[in-house]
UniProtKB/TrEMBL annotation:
CDD domains in the cross-refs: SIRT5_Af1_CobB
Domain of life, source organism: Bacteria
Binding site for substrate: 53, 56
Protein name: NAD-dependent protein deacylase
Predominant cellular place of this UniProt entry's protein: cytoplasm
Catalytic activity as recorded in UniProt: N(6)-acetyl-L-lysyl-[protein] + NAD(+) + H2O = 2''-O-acetyl-ADP-D-ribose + nicotinamide + L-lysyl-[protein]; N(6)-succinyl-L-lysyl-[protein] + NAD(+) + H2O = 2''-O-succinyl-ADP-D-ribose + nicotinamide + L-lysyl-[protein]
Amino acid sequence: MKNIVILTGAGISAESGLRTFRDSDGLWEGYNIEDVATPEAWEHNPVMVQQFYNERRKSVLEAKPNAAHYALAALEEKYKVTIVTQNIDDLHERAGSTNVVHLHGIITRSQSSIKPELTYPIDGWEIKMGEKCELGSQLRAHVVWFGEAVPMIETAAAICAGADLFILVGSSLAVYPAAGLIGYVDRGVPKYIIDPNIPSVNVRGNVIKIQEKATIGVPALVNELLKD
Ligand code: APR
């Protein structure tokens, strides 16, 4: 069975109403990354960081998967599908995808602030100051901040190296190590890129650019792949 690997970024959730990071109305327009998405920010102002992710979590819980998420889930009828996502939302899972690797964590779980491997489900939208992990440390969002390790990167690289077909949806490829994953895909493997604003990729051979938004481009490509 053909092995399809899809790398997704914030663009696939844009039409579900979740803001991307670097588009004109992007998230980072409203905040300084250094103030809300780094270990130093957590040190200096944990309440502001907690509040930032509580607000993000609320929007995620209110959002719904869109046609692009559902189309990728439908691919599983015929292919072995692995989604490697940079997104911290759970829209792929809610659309029915069963094999999702979250490179940057997932906002619907909390994490110990002294032992990252300790994560917990969150009921409701907020983590309150004072809520502690089993080791007694303050709980934080289970997301990877700038400057923190990306524990799943080796797994993701091996997954990309094994792809028979690769699809990139909705990422500016601005952030490493995630942006380097496309380089692990074999030269001869078809690499589709779906984005209204195709990012520059420094890979040779077999790149097929689909300059469309996700809810148009992804279902169209999936329909073709399900016909094969
Ligand atoms: N459909 C498809 N792609 C879209 C759409 C859409 N409707 N709208 C925007 N895009 C594309 C943009 O053209 C851009 O290429 O989505 C991409 C969004 O890029 P970023 O905002 O940089 O998001 P992403 O690439 O996921 O960022 C990577 O950076 O800030 C960190 O941890 C954060 O995971 C994030 C990482």
